[in-house]
Amino acid sequence: MNDTPVLPPLDQWTRAGARVPVGGHEVFVRQDGPEDGAPVTLLHGFPTSSHDWAPVVPALVAAGLRVTTLDFLGFGESDKPRRHTYSILDQATLVEDVWRRTGTGRTALVAHDYGVSVGQELLARDPSRITRMTWLNGGLYPDLHRPVPTQRLLHGPLGPLLAPLTTRRRFAAALRGVLGRELGAADVRELWAAASRAGGHRLAPRLLRYIDERRDQAGRWTAALEEYPGPVLFVWGPADPISGAHVLARVRTKIPRASVVELAGPPAVGHYPQLEDPQAVAAALVSFLAP
Predict the structure, then answer these.
(1) Contact 289, 108 (CB under 8 A)
(2) Residues near 177 by Cβ (< 8 Å), separated by ≥ 6?
(3) 90-94 contacts: CB < 8 A, separation 24 or more?
(4) Successive 10-residue mean pLDDT values, the chain, 291 residues
(5) Which residues pair with 262 in a beta bridge?
(6) Residue 182: is it exposed, middle or buried by C-beta count within 10 angstroms (0-12/13-18/19+)?
(7) pLDDT at res. 114
(8) What are the CB-based long-range contacts (under 8 Å, 24+) for 98-103?
(9) Cα separations (Å) of 61 from 34, 54, 65, 289?
C-alpha cells in the first residue's frame, strides 16, 4: 500500500470554498478554474463529501474548465439537520439552486455513488441543461444494487441505534470492503472527518432512504439514463462489490454508444475511482470534458 496521501487536508479544501444560504440551509460550495471556462459540476457520494473530488480538480482546472463542487445537505461542510427528511429530489433542487446562485447555465455533469441518483433526477427534469454526462460507480439500476452489510444494517430498523456507535475504525473497515486499491491511513482520516463532522455519521439511516427512493423512481431514472441524447462517459471500477462489473455489463448492453473507461488494473479499482486511481480518472475526464 502507498501511504502517500491522495487527498489534501480537509481544512485546506474547505478554505477555498464557502458556506452559502441555499433553500433555507447553509451549503458548502466551491468553484475552481477560470470564470469563462466550460462549466462542469461534480456530484459526490455517500457518506463522504465534495472533498472526494480534490485529487482530480487540479487537472480539470489546468484544462481550462470551470469546476463547481458542493456538499449535499447532510454531508461534509453543509448543514446536517438531525430531523430533516432527506431525499434525492430535494438534493437535485439544491443543485439547481446552487447553479442559480453561481450563475451556472448549461453544464457538464460528473456523478459518483449517491450523486448518480441526483444526476439521474436532474436528467429526468431537464436533459437539455446537461451538455455531457460522466458516471462513476453508483446504483444506476436499482435491481443491481448490492449494499454491503453495514449499509443494510444502517438502513434497517436498528439503524438509528447503530449509527451513533460508528467509529473511525468501523468506518475504515467498511471502506476497505468496497475498495479495489487500499487507501492510506491519512486519507481515511480525512474521509471520516468529513462524514462525521457535526455528528454527520448519526444521519446515515436518514440519508440511506435514498435506496428506497431509487426503487420508487426506477422507471423514471432509468429512462433518463438510457435516453439522454448527449455524450456519455462511464469511468468505472469493476472490483466494486456494490456497483461494479455487473453494472458495467448492463451499461454496455443498454447504452452501447457510450464511451467506457474500465479501470481494470491490475489491481482493479473498486468503488472510489477518483481516490483509488485519480490520475486515470483525471485523464479520462479531461479528454472527455475539455473543449
Answers:
(1) yes
(2) 148, 150, 241
(3) 90/23, 91/118, 91/121, 92/118, 92/121, 92/122, 92/125, 93/23, 94/22, 94/23, 94/27, 94/70
(4) 85 97 95 97 97 98 98 98 96 98 97 98 98 98 90 90 93 96 97 97 95 96 98 98 96 98 97 98 97 77
(5) 236
(6) middle
(7) 97
(8) 98/20, 98/22, 98/27, 98/29, 98/68, 98/70, 99/41, 99/68, 101/20, 101/22, 101/29, 102/29, 102/31, 102/68
(9) 8, 11, 5, 11
Q: CA angle at residue 25 from 66 to 30, to 5 degrees?
A: 20
Residue 224 lies in a domain: yes
Report how far residue 269's alpha carbon sits from residue 235's, in angstroms, rounded to the nearest whole number: 10
Domain range spanning residue 33? 10-289
Cα–Cα distances in angstroms (integers) from residue 275 to residues 53, 167, 218, 281, in the given order:
8, 21, 28, 9
Write the CATH number for 202.
3.40.50.1820
pTM: 0.97
The answer to whether the beta carbons of residues 233 and 284 sit under 8 Å apart is yes
Q: Where are the beta strands (DSSP E) in 187-250?
A: 232-236
Alpha carbon distance 10, 7 (integer Å): 8
Grid coordinates 480539470 are at which residue? Answer: 60
3-class SS of residue 281: helix
Q: Which of 127, 141, 111, 136 shows the shortest CA–CA distance to 224? A: 127
3-class secondary-structure state, position 181: coil
Residue 140 has what pLDDT? 97
Residue 225 located in a structural domain: yes
| Rg, C-alpha atoms of the chain | 17
> In this structure, what C-alpha cell is assigned to residue 164?
451513533
What is the distance between the alpha carbons of residues 29 and 54, in angstroms, rounded to a whole number?
Answer: 13
Q: Work out how many domains the chain is built from and give that number.
A: 1
Question: Could you tell me if residue 4 is inside a domain?
Answer: no
Whether residue 182 is contained in a domain is answered as: yes
First to last CA, the chain: 36
